[in-house]
Amino acid sequence: MGYEISGQVGLVTGANRGIGKAILEALLKAGAAKVYAAVRDPASVSGLTEAYGDKVVPLELDLTKPETIKTAAQTASDVSLVVNNAGVLKTASALSENALDSLEFEMNANVYGLIRVAQAFAPVLKANGGGALVQLNSVASIKTFPEFTTYCASKAAAYAVTQGLKDQLKEQGTLVVSVHPGPIATDMGHTAGFDEIAEPPELVADGVVAALQAGEFHVFPDSLAKEMGAAYESFAKNVIEAEMSEN
């Protein structure tokens, strides 16, 4: 069963730029009544509040600071849709001198941050009828690129957590969506050196909206992601999305 965005209240982490900003705007276009822009610096979303007025509510949230997440969940007690978009990336292979420091940094935001968001907001979503939780993972969660090994490891772990949340939150009527973009034209994509092959963040936003409306778990929104998603589809459908016994 799909999630109807129109009239709902959403929250997007990392909403001040890139994919997060595109998702926030796509949710408003789809009829969301209000969206919390959950960011480390609320002043960074001034352009969005100027453009959309009180439909955008700045909110402090840092994935690496649990107290800000708990406070945000208390403030945004009316949300029925949480999009955990924020994340970090370091360029480090398994043999890099900074590999362990990079992995610790990425795990703290990309994995522990997801768990913190899920733990804080799952009760809120339940109280508001179930709603939906969207996690921005990556094609890097299913394929390791050597120079980004630590980032890929963190995203693979986040994908594993997302799968667990899919099954667990189903019991309270919460739809969980796992999004797997390829190279996207964002600040992070630029830092990673993807400028020549990067595609617009609006592709991701449109994919998120479509998946919510259709009630789908996996989203492979851009050209590279679609190619990888097609190759992965059989396993995804028959193992990841299938109802399987643990015994």
Structure description:
- By secondary structure, the chain is an alpha/beta fold.
- The protein has a single domain (9-240), classed as Rossmann fold.
- It has eight helices and seven strands, in the order βαβαβαβαβαβααβα.
- It has helices at residues 18-29, 46-52, 66-75, 99-127, 149-169, 187-191, 201-214, 223-240, and strands at 9-13, 34-39, 56-60, 81-84, 132-136, 175-179, 218-219.
- Strands 3-2-1-4-5-6-7 form a seven-stranded parallel beta sheet, sandwiched between helices.
- Helix 2 links the parallel strand 2 and strand 3 (56-60).
- The longest helix is centred in the middle third of the chain and has 29 residues, at 99-127.
- The two termini are 27 Å apart.
- The mean pLDDT is 95.
Briefly summarize what is shown.
By secondary structure, this protein is α/β, with parallel strands linked by helices.
* Largest pleated sheet: 7 strands, parallel
User: What is the CATH level 1 assignment?
Assistant: Alpha Beta
> How many separate domains?
1
Helix content: 40-55%
Query: Multimeric state of these chains?
Result: single chain
The succession of helices and strands, N to C, reads EHEHEHEHEHEHHEH
What does the overall shape look like? globular
Overall mean pLDDT stands at 95
- The first-to-last residue Cα distance is 27 Å
Q: Approximately how much beta-strand content do the residues carry?
A: 5-15%
Helix/sheet category = alpha/beta
* Rounded Rg: 17 Å
CATH topology: Rossmann fold
Number of DSSP strands?
A: 7
EC number: 1.-.-.-
Protein name: Putative oxidoreductase
Keywords: Oxidoreductase
GO molecular function, one term: oxidoreductase activity
